[in-house]
């Protein structure tokens, strides 16, 4: 175990009620259920209402956490919302959530590491608590990707959905959750997965897109399948633990073929992998907390088990984290 003094003490999640199935997508773009399932493993995804935003999903995920684990959040001293789909450029989603929850003495920041956001958020929360700067932190991964998805682009609109998950991280120097981590980014490959904003001239060629997600799926796939297995080894080396000792692997739920390739290359059994993409699609920073909560509700995850989390995506950023499950 590292010198961590932080423990995950509760988890909650929320997904919008509206479903978008593969059969419904067949009526929107040139695609079909068999093709989508074969290539991605996704059967449906959840879609936020027009008046439902990332702050709403974040708030409801925290409420779910509070009710299930009988937790209060008035004394939370930092809120970290991991998202690439904030309600506004400013104020932050975290500040809106802080107001909705009535937390008076808390810092509030948004963190954008795209699909690696939640693992980055946990990495930072562990650092803040272990250093003594904070005592009780909410880490939320939430997205409304439907609001930036191009539903005329059949290569991307089949992937993305909305949802969120939240965990509470508290000071505990006797039974900490965090073993080790490994983070990285390859910004030069950022043009393979982007959503344009104020500027689209960062790269040599002018990028297309008007505020919608644009992805070179083949290049992102190649990058992930080569990068993540190496990162997994680094997380294990930092903890002096073998991959054989891992009880569950929770990668970002990008698509099933990618997860299968990562498991194959790292020689990790797919049966010991948790994912949320079948029912929720790719929810970016929300996939890992949704997968964890799904594993908990299905009674797969058990207290004391070693769990390897690995987020990867836009940036192209990635972050791996080895934790001891404490719930």
Structure description:
The structure is a single chain. The chain is α/β, with parallel strands linked by helices and 327 residues long. The protein folds into two domains: 166 residues, Peroxisomal Thiolase, Chain A, domain 1 (3-Layer(aba) Sandwich), CATH 3.40.47.10; 147 residues, Peroxisomal Thiolase, Chain A, domain 1, CATH 3.40.47.10. The protein is 31% helix and 24% strand. Strands 1-7-6-4-5 form a five-stranded mixed sheet, with helices on both faces. A four-stranded mixed sheet has the order 8-13-12-11, with helices on both faces. A hairpin with a 3-residue loop joins β12 and β13. The longest helix has 23 residues. The two termini are 18 Å apart.
Helical region count?
9
Q: CATH superfamily assignment of the largest domain?
A: Thiolase/Chalcone synthase
Radius of gyration: 18 Å
| CATH class designation of the largest domain | Alpha Beta
Tell me the count of domains: 2
Topology order in helix (H) and strand (E) letters: EEHHEHEHEHEEEEEHEHHHEE
Strand order of the largest sheet: 1-7-6-4-5
Give the biggest beta sheet: 5 strands, mixed
Between the first and last Cα atoms, what is the distance in angstroms? 18 Å
CATH architecture of the largest domain: 3-Layer(aba) Sandwich
Low-confidence sequence ranges: none
Strand content: 15-25%
Average pLDDT rating: 93
């Amino acid at each position: 175990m590292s010198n961590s003094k932080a423990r995950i003490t509760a988890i909650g999640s929320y997904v919008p009620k509206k479903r978008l199935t593969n059969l419904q997508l067949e009526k929107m773009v040139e695609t079909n259920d068999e093709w989508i399932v074969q290539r991605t493993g996704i059967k449906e995804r959840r879609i936020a209402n027009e008046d439902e935003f990332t702050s709403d999903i974040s708030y409801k995920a925290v409420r779910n956490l509070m009710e299930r684990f009988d937790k209060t959040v008035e004394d939370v001293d930092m809120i970290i919302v991991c998202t690439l789909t904030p309600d506004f450029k400013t104020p932050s989603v975290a500040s809106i959530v802080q107001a909705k929850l009535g937390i008076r003495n808390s810092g509030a920041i948004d963190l954008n590491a795209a699909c690696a956001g939640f693992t980055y958020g946990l990495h930072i929360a562990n650092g803040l608590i272990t250093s003594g700067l904070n005592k009780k932190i909410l880490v939320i991964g939430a997205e409304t990707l439907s609001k930036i998805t191009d539903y005329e682009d059949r290569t991307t609109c089949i992937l993305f959905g909305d949802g969120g998950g939240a965990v509470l991280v508290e000071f505990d120097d006797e039974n900490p959750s965090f073993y080790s981590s490994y983070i990285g980014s390859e910004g030069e490959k950022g043009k393979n997965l982007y959503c344009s904003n104020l500027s689209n001239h960062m790269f040599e060629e002018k990028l297309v897109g008007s505020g919608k997600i644009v992805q070179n799926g083949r290049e992102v796939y190649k990058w992930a399948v080569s990068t993540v297995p190496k990162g997994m080894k680094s997380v294990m080396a930092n903890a002096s633990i073998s991959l054989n000792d891992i009880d569950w692997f929770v990668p970002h739920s990008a698509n099933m073929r990618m997860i299968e390739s990562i498991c194959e290359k790292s020689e990790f059994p797919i049966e010991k992998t948790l994912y949320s993409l079948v029912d929720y699609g790719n929810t970016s920073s929300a996939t890992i907390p949704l997968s964890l909560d799904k594993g908990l509700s299905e009674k797969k995850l058990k207290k004391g088990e070693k769990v390897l989390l690995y987020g990867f995506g836009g940036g192209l950023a990635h972050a791996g984290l080895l934790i001891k499950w404490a719930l």
